[in-house]
Structures are given as structure tokens and as C-alpha cells.
Amino acid sequence: MIRNKIYGYIFGILFSAAMVTGYQLETYDHLTLSSVSGILVFIGLSLIVGTLAPFGWKYLDRIYDKRRGITSKQKIDNGSITDILSDNMPDKESQRAGSKSKISAFFSYFDMASDKKYWLTIWGILIVLQIPVMLAEFPGFFCYDAQDELNQVLTRSFSTHHPLVHVLILGGNIALGHKLTGSWNIGICFHLTMQMLFMTGVFAYALTFLRKNIAIKSVDKASGNINYRGKKVYRTIAVLFFGLFPTIVMYTLCSTKDGLFSTFLLLLVIELMKLLSDTENFFKLKRHIFLLILSAMMMSLLRHNGFYAYIVFIPFGVFALRKYYKKVLILFIIPVILSIVIESGLTAALNADSSEHQEMITVSIMQLARTWRYTPEDFSEEDKEVLLSFLSERALGTYEIRAADYMKSFFDNAEYDENSGAYWKLWAKMMVSHPMTYINAWFLTCYPYWYPFAVINPYRGHQMPHFTYEDSSYFEYEVEPPGERHTLAFGFIDKLYYKMSLTPFQQKTPIVSLLFSMGFYFWVWMYFAFYTITKRKLMVCLPLMPVFLTWLTLMLGPVALIRYMLILWYITPLLPAFFGHIYSSVAESKC
């Protein structure tokens, strides 16, 4: 089909551009667009990927055709596909059941359990799987700004640099645990245990949703109970992925806000899928309305870029569901109002400092710093005076190509409040004369989000309380004061997590490295998105839009870290459910 070939080559061009630019930034620390070899690789890879992409989509079609061949024999009941088991059905199933092993019988429970029992069981399994890591890493990973957030609560000196909701949750839990026991470690462990219980509960909810969407439903005529048959292997792998995969477990037991943020974003994606698949009934179920409002509100409160991503999503969501635009608009606006009221209320009540600007203009700071680093002679005396009024020479001397943390910490916010016009005038002037410098400064802080083979190491040389980053910054393997790590059991797990966090071994191991890569998951979902376009069912991707918009906001962020895009790991097990929705009745409208 000509249309599919065109989409295939568009995908190939985008993918190849990402591979070539990512490789150059990773290898040379700058782009070399005039490189003959780079151009040839781009052209060749575009042709190869563009040619092969449609064949993958045809394979996905065959998978569907096979599944449709099964479901087409089933009866339709209330708009959903069910298989009615008659009373006089041959005893074949019961005979087969009699020969099953205990292990097989155990797995059969997960087919017959009600949604509530299934969710509780999976939740329990996920909790049990966390315990060995908690014992190995006691009291958990207290890192990534956690010390600063705790100190805000202890000193009653607050700022909006970190989301106040998370500051109060983290600081309140730890302070309570310390007050009751006198141990900071127990306080930290208490907070992380509460967090783990919530996150694994949402993961179990996602896995329950997955079962309902990929297994074949059957109704026992005698009891009326719904059974879910098939896809046992995949469902088992999905449970183990959520419960054991290191990248997920690291952040389930980590104090950073990003784990909770991504968990609420996962919950929002699920509720949006439910809203899209059955809009009429969605508004009849208060539970789902509550969960959508809660998840959208909390993702807005837990990260500032989450708020912006959700705001941009609203008009697209309302347009896509325009048949119910009044209800949908009200539903989508409520979380915005609540998050603004709560954030502004906390800021006023806590007298929090909200004068910082550098998080919003990180890219421009890095661009000016890089221009100064490599071509200081291009700044006139007047330009130099303006630049140094915002960033001192000491600050400019701390410029690091992949992390803006030091640079933004030295930025003079008071001067920016008084003279922002001069700042942007200088920025625009330097941009005109140094466009490639600006592009390099920008892309170096975000290319791991699209390049699958990037080694996450923006903090090389940074000294932490108990180690110094050298070859990898994949995860901040740390327990900052006042906490202190004590390995209670499973020391081999502690050694493994240390190795995965601070050495690049899993990031450089062929094939395995892709499972730990943000760029890899990003292109998996991009390939799926293009597939929905070839089927003229782009509407299916609507629930993923908050994820994509969050990804876009990170293009303007200070550094590329795994913690900012954890959601890519969380949503990947749901891919078959999205695939199934392409062919569901709700996706019949063409977008």
C-alpha cells in the first residue's frame, strides 16, 4: 500500500535523524552536520528502516487477524465479546484440568479470580517482590533532593523549587517516623514503605486492566462468573516486570518525586483509555471520575512540567471527545482548578519563596554559557557586562555540557526580575551569530530521551556524600544524611544495584542495554503511533498524549535522567491493550 510506504519512510527519516544526531552527540559532544559519513549513514538508514517498517505493520495485522479468527466465533453480549460456556459442553476441559499440575492450577486461579481478588493478589505479589530489595538497601534510596525537601520541613523554610505537596508528604512522613522512634532511618523507611504500597497498588491496578483487555473473556453460564483465558505467559512476564525490573524497583523505593509522578501519570493513562473506550458509561461510574481527577491533579502538583503537559492536553482531549464536550471539558478542567488552588494555598500558607526563574529558562542559560566557554571574544564589553550581571565568571566556569544544575544554581534571579529584557536581548543577539552552538548546548542536555544507545552519565565528576560519579549516573545510589545505609540481608542485591547505578555495564551490554534505555522505549511507542496512523486510528493514542507532552517538556529541561521518564517503563506492558483498542468499536472513528 502506497500510504504505508510513505509513512514507513517518514518514520525511517525521523528514526535515522535521531540515531545519527544521538551518535554524534554521544561520541563527539557536538553535531557535525557536514560530515559525509554521517550524511551517508542517515540516507542509508532512512532507506533501510523506511523499507522494513511497513513489513512490521503487516506482521501486526496478521497477529490481529489470528486473534479476530478466535473472537469472531464468540457471541456478542452487551457490546462486549464473551464466550458462553454451555451446560452440556464436553468434559474435555474438566479432564484436562484434572491432569494439570499444581503450578498450572495455581495459574488457573488468575483466570477465574474476580477483578478485586486479582488486584489484591497481584498487589500482594508485587509487595513481596519489593521486600528483598528493601532489606538489601535499608532504609531505601534517600536521594535526589530529598535532603533539601526534608530540611524545608524541619526548618519551616519553604520554597517552590520543589513541589510543596511532595515536600510535605516526604518531610511529614520522615519527621513523624523519627518523632515516634528516634531513628531517621526508620522515618525514611516508613515514608518509602508508604510510597511503595501506593505505587505497587497502582501497578496491580494496571495489571488488572491489562488482563481485562488482552485475555479472552468467557462467562460460565451456571455461575455467571467471568473467566479470563489466554495470554498467561505475557501476563506473568508483566507482573515480574513491574515487580523485579531494576529501573522500576529503584524508583519504587526512592524518595524522589518522580516515581509518584509517573505512577499518577500511569493511572491517568489507564483512566483515559477507559474514558475513550466507553465514554457513555465512564460518566456513570464515580470511581473512574474520581481516579481521573485525582491522577491529573497529582501529576500537576508533583512536577511543574506535568501541569504544563496536562494543560496542553486538554483541548486535544476535548476535541477528540467532542460528542461529550461539555462533560469532558468540566472533567478535564477540575484537576487544573484544584491544583492551582492547592499550590497557591500552600505557597501562601507556608510563606514559600517563589522567586526562582532558572528552571524555566535552563536551555537559554546553557546556550549563553556554552557560547561564552568557546567564543568569549565574541562578547563585546557591553555584552560581557550584561552576561556577568546574571551569571558570574565563577558560575560560567562551572559549565558542564550535559547538566545545568550548577549553572542554574548560580543564576541571579533578583537581577532577572529587574532586567529580564537585557537578558533576552543578549540571548537573541548571540543566537543569530552562534546558531550551532545554541543547538549543541540544547541537544546535549536532552538527546538520551531519543537516542537508545546513550550512556546516562551527566554527573561525571560530581561528588556525593558516599561516592563520586565516574562512568555512569544511571541512578543516584545514595542515602543522604540524616539517613545511613545498612544492608540487612541479600547483600548480592546491594552489589548489583550499586553496579547498575554507578557503572555502565548494563548500558553497554548488547540487547540488554535497550531494556534500560529511555530512547528505546520512546521509539517502540513511536513505531506503534505510526501504526495507528496507517490504520487511520490515531485516536487510540489519545491516552498517551500526556506522556508525549511530558516528553516534550523535557526537551527544555536541565539534564536527561532516567527518573524524568519512568513512565515509559510503566506503560510499556500495556502495549497489547493499546493494540487491541485499535480494532475495538470505539476506535472506528478516523482521526
What labels describe this entry?
mainly alpha; single chain; disordered C terminus; 4-stranded mixed sheet
Give the radius of gyration: 26 Å
Q: How many helical elements?
A: 27
Distance between the amino and carboxyl termini: 19 Å
Flag low-confidence runs: 71-99, 585-591
Amount of beta strand: under 5%
Please state the structural category: mainly alpha
Sheet with the most strands: spatial strand order: 1-2-3-4
Binned, the helix content reads 55-70%
The mean pLDDT is 90
Q: What coarse outline follows from CA principal-axis ratios?
A: globular
Biggest β-sheet strands, sense, barrel: 4 strands, mixed
Give me the count of strands.
4
Task: Report on this structure.
The protein is mainly alpha-helical. The chain contains 27 helices and four strands. Strands 1-2-3-4 form a four-stranded mixed β-sheet. Helix 5 (115-136) packs parallel to helix 9.
Question: What would you say about this model in short?
Answer:
The chain has 591 residues and is mainly alpha-helical.
SSE layout and pairings?
Blueprint (H helix, E strand, L loop, with lengths): L1 H27 L7 H36 L3 E3 L2 E6 L6 H7 L3 H11 L2 H22 L9 H10 L8 H18 L2 H31 L1 E5 L5 E4 L2 H13 L1 H7 L4 H21 L1 H4 L3 H17 L1 H17 L4 H25 L12 H13 L6 H10 L2 H4 L8 H5 L3 H21 L1 H9 L47 H12 L9 H4 L2 H17 L10 H10 L12 H5 L3 H8 L9
Parallel strand pairs: 2-3
Antiparallel strand pairs: 1-2, 3-4
Helix pairs in contact: 1-2, 1-24, 5-8, 5-9, 6-7, 7-8, 8-9, 8-11, 11-13, 13-14, 13-15, 14-15, 14-25, 16-21, 17-20
